[in-house]
UniProtKB/TrEMBL annotation, chains A, B:
<protein>
    <recommendedName>
        <fullName>Methyltransferase</fullName>
        <ecNumber>2.1.1.-</ecNumber>
    </recommendedName>
</protein>
<feature type="region of interest" description="Disordered">
    <location>
        <begin position="1"/>
        <end position="23"/>
    </location>
</feature>
<dbReference type="InterPro" id="IPR010426">
    <property type="entry name" value="MTTB_MeTrfase"/>
</dbReference>
<dbReference type="GO" id="GO:0015948">
    <property type="term" value="P:methanogenesis"/>
</dbReference>
<dbReference type="InterPro" id="IPR038601">
    <property type="entry name" value="MttB-like_sf"/>
</dbReference>
<keyword id="KW-0489">Methyltransferase</keyword>
<keyword id="KW-0808">Transferase</keyword>
<dbReference type="Pfam" id="PF06253">
    <property type="entry name" value="MTTB"/>
</dbReference>
<dbReference type="GO" id="GO:0008168">
    <property type="term" value="F:methyltransferase activity"/>
</dbReference>
<dbReference type="GO" id="GO:0032259">
    <property type="term" value="P:methylation"/>
</dbReference>
<comment type="similarity">
    <text>Belongs to the trimethylamine methyltransferase family.</text>
</comment>
Length: 517, 517
């Protein structure tokens, strides 16, 4: 750790020293769109009456049924001190307590990236897009479906870095199963920190790993900077229904204490972890998120917390979770309304689908969910690209297919311009009945930015398409994956920081025996 | 025509006589969902200010630039009599004239089907779904891409009849290119009338063919009934920009005079037939629709007319039209607002895509447009399934794939229930922290109707899916097409009417030489 300490001590502010600045100037730069700032309204499915009922019911759940904080005596003490009624591991919150505690959580916050141009503001009318999280398998055209490795992980980090419409590098883009369970978070963080300059997520699988995440962030950003600023947004799942386990809460405690952001997120397959009804699920989601965010504020008032909602439906014939479905859509819209009422940033939606292949099913279900996410007012969309097979698989081709579609979300979110140029009255006069606009002055002046254009999909004439082999989307995507990985160039990083990070990881790994479960 | 007249005269009201009723009782019936009655709000992208500007600009276009009514001296006379300024074929409408004339058009109307259970109400908060219209080619897995025939057409009519989420049989589902141009409308109408009992569209390719459509409808429904009720909704395209040709207007004149509905629809590839900006395109669309609907009211005040908007974007690199794009989405949302301000039913959106195959591109683009259509307040969605390759191809597999996804639209549109059962508080109490809902009383009582379920997509475990051949959506759809066509049973029809329709078609065809252009 001595190298790491030296690097921290020797660092002069963010962005590194002169060497890094020189490297930055000479590097190829890849365009990343700014996070989405919506200029369109949100779509809202709940009436005022429905909101009032759901909010009252959620308070009732917290007071009467309560939530369980498992294996976590300190949490129970904190709750007692805050005025909750604690019986065994059950915590019952008097009406109004959670809502009162939540008031200190910010309605929006900046997550800093090591490249300040990549900073994101999470909350308000913004939408930040991050890739798939968690699959143990990967798939691509050539290799088929297989366990994910660290090599796959690094490829995904590179693809995310080079994807114009992704604002965030994410976290466990896939599980690198060839690295011991207790060490893989180190390699994953190292990849995010060194192969990309976009913001990233910390480890949550153990409080110690959360602490490692913070220490590595302190090497990258400087310890003072990390204490004063949010540089990680991490995923804290609630063990629905109404249960907060010690592992996730332990990670939350580490992050909140350090002013790092947590997504407090019920993980719900409807009909299994929540009632089969939309209103019932929203009630439980609200109660769970309120308890979780309130708890984060008991750790450190003002620590950023995001209202998370991972909800999907179930196929009652087979028990399989199903995605891109209307019930999930309605819950996602409704939870957005509830999040805004609490003044919290909102996380939901993604490239969800249950398909085994990046085919039409995958795309229908994904497009359904992505569009819902945009209109539901989601502020942080995890899983926005690459998800396949109910989250079991991170698919390389689907990653770039979805990432391309995220451009369309940017286009819709920009809203409708109405200035004189947009009104185009001179063009309508110039062309008149029966003419055409292709050559008119207004078209010439505006066509470059007028229409969003896919960088992937096929717009060619049929004959050309056929001559080129009649390729489907997956085959086009495969070529794009190869091209992006071939073009990839590592963003510059102060060599001292790079060395310190590598040393930290090597020393940490050497200090522990391997664990594979 | 004598047989037809006899059949009309001999017909005792709608639905046919005792023979038909007996046939009905013994027939297999296929479930058709009721048209969508939205219980969710519309999504609106235009501010009040933007609406005011666009409406003022459209009036300015009509007054200053005007519209052209080509090769149609009678139309010019009608416009003169109504107070327009006519110069050559140019018709300029004083501000307010079109909006005033439009007031007699109904805000909603019933289109009757020969099976009254299939009647649809077009307008209000409703959404009626109809299949693809117009492709000269068809495609399926086995036969590839080829010119469409009458056999293909009949198959599509059967598939539409058997598709639960389709409310309408449509019109030119594909072009039966093996039938002479001047006769194919007769075979198409006969197929809609005899192979299905859902509502359908009339021919618009010539005023004479519109008259044939009315005469065949009179055989099917009775002449008095047709005069008093709307039994056809037909597609009247505007030759954008700002041009109304004699063929389409001739068909409109026939239908409006008979109280039959017309969709007055600008056909716009943005940047070619309208300005490249959203606001400019909406201005032109509004001006065109206002002129067209106003003209329909000059023919017969009160004749049903639909505010149509077919708008897509263009790839400025290749000139190809592009689909499922953000600009098309914004125009579709905005045009819905303008239609509601005029108090007219609204037609837009569909299974639009530019892909050559029913692959992920096709599904992304289609899902984008279908979701927009639902939230934009569309009342009549033509092309809601089966569209491929920019409308050049009607694809059999995509037809059933899209038709299945239309079920999800029904699910979203139903909105959120908030009664005591939906609140599910007893379930949350029963299960409590750490339990699960699969076996609880509320789940048992509600699971059958809780979640929309695809009839097509793959929800199987990976291993099962792999053992069954690892099929993609297209292959699953192929099986479904075969199954549906094998299961098809013709809906019962009074044999006298059936005979009269066949005789009418045979006599009409015999009365004309074949024409192929």
């Amino acid at each position: 750790m001595s190298e790491a300490s030296k690097a921290r001590a020797g660092r002069r502010g963010r962005g590194g020293g002169g060497a890094a600045r020189r490297a930055q100037r000479s590097a190829v730069s890849f365009e990343t769109a700014k996070y989405i700032e919506r200029n369109v309204p949100n779509f809202e499915v709940l009436t005022e009456e429905a909101i009032a009922i759901i909010e009252a019911n959620a308070e009732q759940v917290l007071e009467e049924i309560g939530v369980a904080f498992v294996d976590n005596p300190e949490a129970l003490e904190r709750w007692k001190a805050a005025g909750a009624e604690v019986t065994g591991e059950r915590v019952r919150l008097p009406k109004g307590l959670a809502r009162e505690l939540i008031k200190t959580a910010p309605s929006e916050f900046t997550q800093h990236a090591r490249n300040p141009d990549r900073n994101v503001v999470i909350g308000g009318r913004n939408l930040v897009l991050a890739p798939v999280y968690g699959p143990p398998f990967v798939r691509d055209v050539d290799g088929g479906r297989r366990y994910a490795t660290m090599d796959d992980f690094q490829k995904f980090v590179k693809l995310a870095y080079m994807s114009k419409w992704l604002h965030h590098s994410g976290g466990t883009v896939c599980e690198p199963t060839d690295v011991p369970v207790n060490k893989r978070h180190l390699d994953m963080l190292l990849a995010h920190m060194t192969l990309s300059d976009k913001p990233f997520m910390g480890s949550v699988t153990d409080p110690d790993r959360a602490r490692d995440s913070v220490e590595m962030a302190e090497i990258l950003f400087g310890a003072d900077f990390v204490d004063q600023n949010t540089v990680m947004t991490s995923l804290i799942n609630i063990n629905s229904p109404l249960t907060f386990d010690a592992t996730m809460m332990g990670a939350l405690e580490v992050y909140a204490a350090k002013n790092q952001a947590s997504i407090i997120s019920p993980f719900i397959v409807g009909g299994a972890m929540a009632p089969v009804s939309v209103a019932g699920t929203l009630t439980q989601v609200l109660a769970e998120v309120m308890a979780g965010v309130a708890y984060s504020q008991l750790i450190r008032p003002g620590a950023p917390a995001i209202f998370g909602t991972f909800v999907t439906s179930i196929d009652m014939n087979s028990g399989a979770p199903t995605f891109g479905t209307p019930e999930a859509a309605k819950i996602t819209y409704g939870a957005g309304q509830l999040a805004r009422r609490l003044g919290l940033p909102y996380r939901s939606a993604g490239s969800f689908n249950g398909s085994k292949l990046p085919d039409a099913q995958a795309a229908y279900e994904t497009a359904n969910s992505l569009n819902v996410g945009l209109l539901a007012g989601v502020n942080f969309m995890l899983h926005s690209c690459g998800w396949l097979e109910g989250g079991l698989v991170a698919d390389f081709e689907k990653f770039v297919m979805d990432a391309d579609q995220l451009g369309a979300l940017h286009g819709i979110a920009s809203g409708v311009e109405i200035d004189e140029n947009a009104q185009a009255m001179d063009a309508i006069r110039e062309v008149g009945p029966g003419g055409h606009y292709l050559g008119c002055a207004h078209t010439q002046a505006n066509f470059k930015s007028a229409f969003w254009r896919s960088d992937l999909l096929d717009y060619k004439p049929f004959e050309t398409w056929e001559e080129e082999g009649g390729r489907d989307t997956r085959q086009l995507a495969r070529l794009r994956v190869d091209k992006m990985l071939a073009d990839y160039q590592q963003p510059p990083l102060d060599p001292a920081i790079n060395e310190a990070l590598n040393t930290y990881v090597a020393e940490k790994k050497a200090s522990m025996p391997d664990a594979f479960t």
